[in-house]
Protein 1
Amino acid sequence: MSKAIFITVRTGSTRLPKKCLLRIKGKRTIKYLVERVKKSKLKDIIVLCTSTLKEDDILCEIAIQQGIEYHRGSVKDKLMRWLGATEKFKVNFFITADGDDLFCEPELIDLAFKQYEKSRADFIEGVNIPTGAFSYGIKTEALKKVCEIKGTNDTEMMWTYFKDTNLFRCEELRNIPLFYKRPEIRMTLDYPEDLQFFKRIINDLSKRKKYFNLKDIISYLDEHPEVIKINQHMQEIFLANQRKKAKLIIKEGKI
């Protein structure tokens, strides 16, 4: 296998307990994400990456039901969890799709795959788009290097090891349609307000069509700006929390 999508998810969450298993219109939130990333045309494989904890057995069962692969690894260290998945499935480059990001956009995923094929970047980041529409693309060789130099197993804010060490070729995702450049829109499931946001969009748009893409979602939000405001105020809290957790800890003598 060469190009993969890794769905990174655990049932453990504090602000919104078991958020990946909550239901919207009778469907678990994680299934919305799985169904969306399946629409990527350039992927070779989808792997649900979760922990070895007993409580995450249900996620492996969901992966089997959805016809995708799964890999179980470290509870806290998602970098090592990803590394295990790359070795298990012989992956050279992968896109991360957090379990929180129900509306992760397959069109952007495929843009990242195309960009990697041309540039062989170590790290590709989505910038100035809705939070949750796309996160990162990572080359396996770069991931291996990061796992060698990192000095902690708490790697939730793993991007700092790629962007702040000056060891890797980092790029912003290119050729993003101008219509998608809406950073004021928050599309990630972390707080109760986020759940209300997703429920409103899914309830309304599912009346119009079975599948709706990012363009459909943004068009709907432009028609209903009040929906953007449901969780928009949580974004600064979310970003502040990320900044607080982002610590670059390197093993002595590794750089």
Note: The radius of gyration is 17 Å.
Protein 2
Amino acid sequence: MSQITVIVPHWNRRDLLERLLGLLRCQTCAIGEIVVVDNGSRDGSVELARNNGARVVALERNVGFAAAVNRGIREARTGFIAVVNNDVAPQPDWLERLRRALDEPETQFAVGKLQDAAQPELLDGAFDTIARAACSWRAGAGRRDGPVWSERRRIHLAPFTAALFRAELFEKIGLLDERFESYLEDVDFGVRCALSGYSGVYEPAAVARHQGSATLGAWHKDTVRRIARNQMLLVAKHYPARCLIQCAWPILVGQTLWGVVALRHGRGLSYVRGKLAGLAMFRRVRTECKNTRPSAPALLSLLRRSESEILELQRQTGFDAYWRWYFALARAA
């Protein structure tokens, strides 16, 4: 097997990093190198990583998830690249199973089953999907594990929480878009993969546990602000004029409903700030991406396929309130 570089983007939480490095040493698949890209931690994380045999790229400040991962990808010299968040706890055979999944023809990446660290019988997620609203769903999030989530399937959007890629994919597609900073940068990358005809595999036998938002905490104001902004950036970057017209109602419904969810978590102001930031960047991003924007039929086909997948999975496993309302309102268009 070709060697693998494991990239760990990190910021503080020395305890999580120490646990992850220990679990990576126990992997049944050989790892060529572990690269910890440290976003200016002040808790001794750099020294810990070096003492545990990792190569450290020490940045002076927190440049965001996308920029940190990109730096790690540039440092890699192997045929395969794994990206693993510091709050992930992979099973010993996690990497080996993902690597074997990449032996399938036309497979550029692989992701496994992420269980909730606090309640392993529930899923943290499996793979990503996207609706016409430019709102994404981490398929399986909060669902009880079961047969639906134990079937291997072809996917197009890989969560960068814990995934394995062919290194050549980043040469073909490009790196993560650093304008997103953190959150939805992997959805943007997945959209680019799908539109270019590249796909991957969801391998449920590759199991890891994920604490989720361990550094900032769930529904942190910065998390909500960035997601609200980046929903706008997905539209600005990928939606041709025809798609903007055809998807105007779903975009309004989906992103407004997401604001209602944020408000229920006490983050209404963060949501508004994110949308204002997205509007401020909207025209510039559309101008910068005018030559790389896909055709309307190609994007609409992708969005409709992915949205149909969301609907089917919701029907099979029970509707979230958000998606129940979204489909009730948006499908009328």
Note: Residues 221-330 form one domain.
